[in-house]
Design brief:
By secondary structure, this protein is mainly beta. The chain is built from 8 helices and 74 strands. Strands 48, 63, 65, 69, 72, 73 and 74 form a 7-stranded mixed sheet that branches. Strands 8-9-15-11-12-10 form a 6-stranded antiparallel sheet, with helices on one face. Strand 72 and strand 73 form a beta hairpin. The longest helix is centred in the first third of the chain and has 10 residues.
């Protein structure tokens, strides 16, 4: 079994947080934006190479570009076409110009930086939108200007000019302006090139020859109805009249061609700035852009007044060491040149800057590059990363996504526009238990299972299809358009067991209520409470008790009880007093949020008791009203009540208080950490630690509190969340379940807290995390649960539902849902499968897949360990049209009761145990001997929302999910014992820190099979709860031995 180390998981979890909107995306076809008064419609994917297809206004937004923002910008600039390119660029125009043509639709495949569900072109590809206004007539070759006659389109080269004399053209650049400039200097041949360059000569030089007319396709910058050559192409004109004199070179000479500078001056040579600029920038050379792809990715907005100084200053201000200028008006920034950028001939960077006609600002696909550190590092063409991969990942190839826009990995996407790397993606996927991973579009990381690939992918594509560099590692490839650079873990990453004996569900009895709270009493009967308004029966009392010995007779099994206020979302614990009273605190609204309710279990198996719930808010109440609080019996025997809200979905109640309420006025304490994490911290997890301190887990945070002052002793690391987001949470309403690993005598091993399930604000967490909070440098360990079975739709994930301990030290996982959060109508895709978690196995090998039920159990469902080792499963109150209110009571028969073995039995001589005392039991075994026997102790608990409301449990059911709850401190003990014959002596846990006082079920295990339990009390009643409350209408069992 191969597992990633904790350090790898921690490294992976330190990735930047990702917004929720970018996590779960299915690639969409280009959208039609809604631009007021000028609706734009998608026209298609168009080429954009060399001269601009849309040459008007432009906008760059590296983090927020969307189709809507681009079309709105172009509309505001009075342009009829809008095009998006390179994910972040917006270009405007009134026509498809300069030879731009339709490309294959899938060529446009870059997600927009502001909305990853939209397409914003690609490299040299524009996603073009049009508002329906007809474009102007296309530009034409001007046939003649006075005595100047067109000779057609000719070749040209920067290295060997066909017309050797470049001149400036005053004002707007046109054919008329260029021919006039050549006439003024007595040249009979004139040529216009690249929309804004004018050349003159006495004859065509250097082998210039006619070219295809379509090559001269750029409109003049000063008159878009005329053609002014193209890249390395001249529209040439011959003067047929008589010149007034011999040719004269323009003042200052020149051979680069002049753009209009508006001043009518002579032609100007352009050159790079060779001196030192602000920020220590110096000229680094002329480089070819788009030799293999864009050489610099960070592009600033085009600036008609661009100068070398403005571009270098802008890049320096953004802490980049390189600045590149192209096409006279474009500025790019970076720290390296990428995509195999190569040096170009110096004189190919020959376009004057828009704001300074003496400075060279690149050219077509040429960058004038400046450096602030004296270095220009050009990285090679990126390649797939195949060596030194994290864990046991191996490269598989360039994988095609599914048909009809289906994602191979539909759930888990991480987008980073600046730091996606293959290593980071694989580390994150591996740390969360996903054996298949892929990177796409340069910036997207996906995690999933190998079966996802088998099910959805169309197979492998040529390696050349994966051609986009990683945003965080430009020398390695991160997929392409709908192409994944695909990696797979070699070997088992999750060793999920599929035992032959899976146990089974059985119907126990029909119910009379939909429980909110269930508690096994020391009378071996289960007390149930439901919230007001749940039952469809008008005569319901909201409180009933089930006699487990009478479940074959519905009319006798249920006893009617009563509560006075609404217990909706209250907390419950079993007190360590002589009567084993059940305490319920908090509730729905008004008086019920202050409610303190007590019930003393009575009666025996087959015989009804007479006690009922006792409550009087005028006499006994909490100091602060609480909805969704947690409760904990502390080591000193008093009850800690923590958190909640002041009523249903009301403001936070970020305080804690003690019961019985201390004298001396208000004693509740404000907790900043509860205030800052509301509303995601309800039903916080509470556990007493062996040191006597208190562990508290809430939302995705955890800390250790002093049990006297409740000050924070230590803030623990945040809990890992979802593979796509550290913001996922574990407590209500995101709601997982927390329990404690079993403790074995002599109780010297560090205590482990286990938390399973939760939600990433809609998608249930499919992992468990654990920590030993009192070891130095405590860190969380993450284990993935089970991938979705085939019956579960692809958009769901497995969830942890109810965690409940079992007598053999394992945990049963049942109930809940795969999608949603806790609350009415907020959950979907019920979890019907039971799992078994065995903490004695290695990390990654602890989960076994058990049997299925047919009964969905969502919000407000419970699980409770019964005295015979079965697990009672009840409730489901989703208030959803899809799922009914659930009255049926089931039991789960764990594997240890499904082998046909006869359970052992035992009697116990004394039921009131002191810490460290020795106590005798008499056992009857049917299969093994006392040498192989085990003894376990399980604390009395209450269950609500899948929560277990007590600090000690020796065998736990885990009930969590995206609606589950917590154990409120459950713990399992395997005490020391010795035997002589069938008489055995058990040594009780040593102190109240190891085992806070309370009632426990004692189980004897003959091999795997548990006995029927017996109840004992350990630690007495140190808080004298038996004398509380001092009101005549409450039953007080008193203090002292049983």
């Amino acid at each position: 079994m191969a597992t990633l180390t904790t350090s790898l998981a921690v490294l992976a979890l330190s990735l930047p947080s990702i917004s929720h909107g970018s996590m779960l995306r299915v690639r969409h076809t280009p959208t039609t934006p809604n631009t007021p008064n000028a609706p734009f419609n998608f026209l298609g994917c168009f080429t954009d190479q060399g001269a601009r297809t849309l040459g008007g206004a432009s906008l760059v937004n590296t983090t927020g570009m969307t189709v809507q923002s681009c079309t709105s910008f172009c509309s505001s600039q009075q342009f009829n076409f809008a095009g998006l390119e390179f994910a972040q660029e917006c270009w405007c125009g009134n026509e498809i110009a300069n030879g731009g043509t339709n490309a294959t639709a899938t060529d446009c495949n870059f997600p927009c930086t502001g909305d990853s569900t939209e397409i914003c072109g690609a490299g040299n590809r524009l996603s073009v939108y049009w508002n329906g206004v007809p474009p102007p007539p296309p530009p034409i070759v001007v046939p003649s200007v006075g005595d100047w006659q067109s000779l057609g389109c000719f070749t040209d080269s920067v290295a060997a000019r066909v017309l050797s004399v470049g001149v400036n053209v005053p004002g707007n650049f046109t054919v008329e302006g260029c021919t006039q400039a050549c006439f003024t200097n007595n040249f009979p041949i004139a040529g216009v090139e690249f929309a804004a360059q004018c050349f003159c000569d006495t004859a065509i030089q250097n082998g210039g020859a006619p070219a295809a007319p379509a090559d001269c396709n750029m409109p003049c910058s000063g008159n878009s109805t005329e053609l002014c050559g193209g890249p390395n192409r001249l529209n040439v004109y011959n003067f047929t009249g008589i010149l007034p004199g011999p040719p004269t070179a323009p003042p200052g000479g020149g051979n680069n061609g002049g753009g209009g500078n508006g001043n009518g001056g002579p032609p100007i040579n352009v050159s790079p700035v060779t001196g030192q600029l602000a920020g220590n920038f110096t000229y680094g050379g002329c480089f070819v852009d788009n030799a293999h792809g864009r050489a610099m990715l960070t592009q600033l907005n085009d600036d008609p007044s661009m100068t070398v100084e403005t571009c270098t200053a802008a890049c320096g201000a953004k802490n980049f060491t390189l600045a590149g200028i192209e096409f006279g008006v474009q500025c790019f920034c970076g720290n390296t040149l990428i995509q195999g950028a190569v040096g170009g001939e110096a004189d190919t960077c020959n376009m004057s800057c828009g704001g300074n006609s003496t400075q060279a600002c690149g050219g077509p696909n040429r960058l004038s590059v400046y450096t602030s550190n004296g270095e220009v590092i050009a990285l090679p063409v990126p390649t797939p990363l195949k060596e030194n991969l994290p864990g046991k990942f191996e490269y598989q190839g360039c994988l095609i996504e599914g048909a009809d826009n289906q994602r191979v990995f539909p759930l888990y996407q991480i987008v980073s526009q600046s730091n996606t790397t293959v290593e980071g993606c694989l580390s994150q996927c591996g740390a969360f238990g996903y054996p298949a991973a892929g990177v796409e579009f340069g910036q997207e990381c996906y995690c999933g299972d190998i079966s996802d690939v088998t099910k959805t992918s169309l197979g492998f594509a040529p390696e050349s299809d994966c051609n986009i560099a990683c945003t965080g590692d430009p020398i390695h490839l991160c997929g392409g358009g709908r192409r994944l650079q695909y990696y797979q873990w070699n070997g088992p990453l999750n060793d999920w067991k599929t035992p032959a004996n899976t146990g089974r569900y059985e119907l126990l009895i029909g119910g009379v209520l939909v429980p909110l709270l269930s508690t096994l009493g020391i009378n071996n009967k289960v007390a149930f409470l439901e919230k007001s308004g749940t039952s469809p029966f008008p005569n319901t009392t909201g409180a009933y008790e089930l006699d487990l010995s009478l479940t074959d007779d519905f009319t006798k099994a249920w006893r009617t009880m009563h509560v006075k206020t609404d217990v909706f979302c209250s907390a419950s614990v079993v007190l360590p007093d002589r009567g084993g009273r059940q305490l319920v605190v908090g509730g729905w609204s008004l008086d019920s949020t202050f409610g303190v309710r007590l019930y003393t279990p009575d009666g025996t198996e087959g015989v009804n008791g007479t006690n009922d719930w006792e409550e009087n808010v005028q006499e006994l109440k909490l100091q602060r009203g609480r909805w969704y609080p947690s409760a904990l019996v502390m080591s000193n025997g008093s009850v800690l009540v923590v958190g909640g809200e002041r009523g249903s979905n009301d403001i936070a109640e970020p305080t804690l208080e003690i019961l019985p309420t201390p004298e001396g006025g208000p004693t509740f304490l404000h907790m900043d950490w509860l205030q800052s994490t509301d509303p995601n911290n309800l039903y916080p997890f509470l556990h007493m630690l062996p040191s006597g301190n208190i562990f508290v887990g809430y939302y995705n945070e955890a800390r250790i509190l002093d049990p006297v002052t409740f000050d924070t002793i230590q803030t623990l690391p945040n809990m890992p969340g979802s593979v796509v987001s550290p913001l996922a949470g574990r407590t209500y309403p995101l709601e997982g379940t927390a329990v404690l690993f079993p403790q074995h005598a002599p109780y010297t091993d560090p205590l482990t807290v286990l938390i399973c399930g939760g939600s990433n604000f809609g998608i249930a967490l499919d992992n468990c995390v654990s920590i030993q909070p009192e070891v130095p440098d405590a860190q969380w360990t993450l284990e993935r649960m089970v991938k979705p079975p085939a019956r579960i739709a692809a958009q769901t994930v497995p969830a942890c539902d109810v965690l409940h301990a079992l007598p053999d030290g394992t945990f049963l996982i049942v109930n809940g849902a795969h999608q949603g959060v806790a609350g009415f109508g907020l959950g979907e895709s019920p979890n019907l499968q039971a799992l078994l978690y065995d903490p004695s196995q290695p990390v990654g090998s602890r989960i076994s897949i058990l049997n299925n039920t047919i009964v969905p159990r969502l919000y407000h469902s419970e699980a409770m360990l019964l005295p015979d080792g079965r697990v009672l499963i009840s409730g489901s109150d989703p208030e959803s049209p899809q799922f009914p209110e659930e009255f049926r009571m089931e039991v789960y028969i764990p594997p240890y009761l499904n082998e046909g073995r006869t359970p052992p039995s035992f009697t116990v001589d004394q039921k009131d145990w002191d810490y460290g005392g020795s106590y005798t039991i008499h056992v009857t075994l049917h299969h093994g001997t006392t040498a192989d026997m085990r003894v376990s102790l399980i604390a009395a608990t209450s269950s609500t929302h899948g929560e277990y409301l007590h600090d000690r449990l020796s065998s736990i059911l885990i009930y969590s999910f995206a609606f589950a709850g917590n154990s409120m401190g459950m713990r399992t003990f395997f005490p020391e014992f010795t035997c002589e014959g069938n008489t055995c002596t058990i040594v009780a846990p040593p102190n109240a820190s190891i085992s806070p006082p309370g009632w426990f079920q004692v189980f004897v295990l003959d091999g795997p099979t548990p006995s029927h339990s017996n109840w004992v009390r350990i630690g007495g009643d140190p808080g004298s709860l038996g004398n509380w409350p001092e009101f005549d209408d409450f039953t007080r069992p008193g203090v002292g031995p049983l």
